[in-house]
Write a structure and sequence with these properties.
The longest helix is centred in the last third of the chain and has 32 residues. The chain is α+β, with helices and mostly antiparallel strands. Helix 4 runs antiparallel to helix 10, helix 5 packs across helix 10 and helix 8 crosses helix 10.
Length: 504
């Protein structure tokens, strides 16, 4: 049976279980902290008892709802707790504490209806502290402004290997104390000790992709952030970045089915294209030895020798970021590697040091530098950006920029480390120079290369003895031979991994 309301003209249905016609009305809702906001709750009378819709009550206060159809329960998740409602029961449970209403809840098979005055009394004393019902004005007045928050809305950023949830914060949290777990029904839960979450902001976050929705609740000593997942994932990493401005939750891509995994492995590990990057060039001569030998000359010669070996002996396409004495900006090098579909990126350089006795070869990965020496090497190689004519927006290596850069390449970090180890091993067999090991530093040229990537310093041009060696064709060929042997070993290992996976 349908009827028209006398106040707003809404069409509503009578309760299926009530034997009398219901009269519709409304109760206004006021917000002390938002005086311009206007809301109203539709209500229905049975005799002199006024009822309201439980889900509409939740919507007005931006609370999330969950319905368990098996037992006909409705759960309202407010900022300061949750309210559990059972069909045809006069009890509601708030955070484990039972409250009895004067009349039972009604359920029409879809919606839950509650005695309005009674439920206002319960939630005012629990999940909406400070709220009150002004019966004379027929207005439910919400709580005053919540104490200052330090956790706000969230946004998503899609990465090649996963999803980054960026949560706005105004306080720095100790990430060692943050608790993370994934529930059986697919919620990622992040509990932040000392956090005070603005659940209204969090609930209205703009999400998508692997995150279906977000909501938060305030616990006694921590904030609980929940994100509904659309697929199975492993536990994420949590970082505090940019001072206290954001909390980052890094979620890796979910595991693939076998056929998808095989396809992914084939695309990833069939090493058909290598990008060789001879450092410096053109107006940028790089480091210059005491005898006048220029870094740009050595790196190009070694790169071309390596490329000829690969073309002749391996079924791989060789792409050079430069194959002559020209200047190429750093950002264009990794961009060219990605556009060429590269599967490996090797940037070749020659080292320099105020210590004229320094000698040997070393391989670098993109990661925060751990030594002053590594910082100096990166600063020297990055200084080329001063010669670039464009205003390409290179990011300063803040904690946030490094986290984002290394996260974008973390898919390849393990393989990059393996390639670096193979390079150091093979060069040791070909060169009579010190093996200085694998290091890490912030090189602009490696940022953005979506493949295993390394930067190699093949010797010190500032060392008189090594400058002489680096000027010799025979020594340069030995360097190229060592790099080639490392690439062959890497190709065998990882294409072999693909074949093993296909056979499983």
């Amino acid at each position: 049976m349908e009827f028209k309301t006398y106040r707003r003209g809404w069409w509503v249905f009578a309760f299926m279980l009530l034997p009398v016609i219901l009269v519709a009305d409304e109760i206004r809702v006021a917000f002390p902290s938002q005086p311009q906001r206007r809301e109203a709750l539709r209500t229905f009378f049975r005799g002199n008892i006024e009822y309201l819709n439980g889900r509409e009550l939740a919507a007005v206060f931006s609370a999330n709802t969950y319905v368990n159809d098996e037992v006909n329960k409705l759960v309202l998740h407010f900022r300061d707790g949750e309210v559990k409602i059972t069909a045809f029961s006069s009890f509601v449970v708030v955070d484990g504490r039972a409250f009895q209403l004067p009349l039972p809840t009604y359920f029409d098979g879809k919606e839950f209806y509650l005695p309005a005055r009674a439920i206002f009394s319960v939630i005012s004393a629990t999940v909406l502290p400070g709220a009150r019902y002004d019966e004379a004005r027929r207005t439910f007045i919400g709580p005053a402004a919540h104490p200052a928050f330090n956790i706000y809305a969230a946004s998503l950023e899609s990465k090649q290997n996963g999803t980054l949830i960026r949560v706005k914060t105004s306080q720095e949290f100790d990430t060692r104390n943050i608790v993370r777990y994934i529930t059986d029904n697919g919620w990622l839960v992040v509990q932040v000790p000392g956090g005070r979450v603005d659940t209204l902001a969090l609930n209205h976050s703009i999400l998508g992709g692997i995150i279906r929705r977000a909501w938060g609740r305030q616990l006694e000593k921590s904030a609980e952030l929940r994100f509904k997942l659309t697929d199975k994932v492993s536990l994420p990493e949590v970082y505090q970045v940019d001072g206290a401005a954001e909390l980052h939750i890094a979620i890796r891509n979910p595991a693939r089915r076998k056929n998808d995994r095989i396809k992914e492995l084939r695309e990833r590990w069939y090493l058909d294209t290598i990008v060789i990057d001879p450092g410096h060039g053109g107006i940028d001569g790089g480091t210059i030895g005491k005898g006048g030998l220029k870094e740009k000359v050595v790196t190009l010669d070694v790169a071309l020798r390596l490329g000829r070996l690969i073309k002749r002996k391996l079924n791989m396409k060789v792409v050079y970021t430069r194959d002559e004495d020209v200047f190429v900006p750093l950002w264009q090098r990794s961009k060219a590697a990605n556009e060429a579909g590269g599967k490996l990126f090797i940037s070749i350089h020659v080292n320099g040091s105020p210590n004229r006795g320094a000698s040997g070869f070393e391989t670098y990965l993109l990661a925060p530098a751990k030594t002053q020496e590594a910082i100096d090497v990166a600063r020297m190689e990055n200084s080329v950006i001063a010669l670039e004519e464009s205003d390409h927006p290179y990011q300063e290596f803040s904690d946030e920029a490094l986290i984002l850069s290394t996260m974008a390449q973390s898919t390849w970090m393990k393989e990059g480390e393996a390639l670096a180890a193979m390079i150091q091993e093979k060069l040791s067999r070909h060169l009579d120079a010190p093996n200085r090991g694998i290091k890490q530093a912030e090189f602009y040229v490696l940022i953005g290369a979506s493949m295993p990537n390394v930067l190699i310093e093949i010797g010190f041009i500032t060392n008189r003895i090594e400058e002489k060696k680096l000027g010799q064709n025979e020594y340069r060929q030995r360097i190229a031979n060592g790099l080639f042997d490392a690439i062959v070993l890497f190709k065998q290992k990882y294409e072999g991994t693909m074949l093993v996976e296909q056979g499983k």
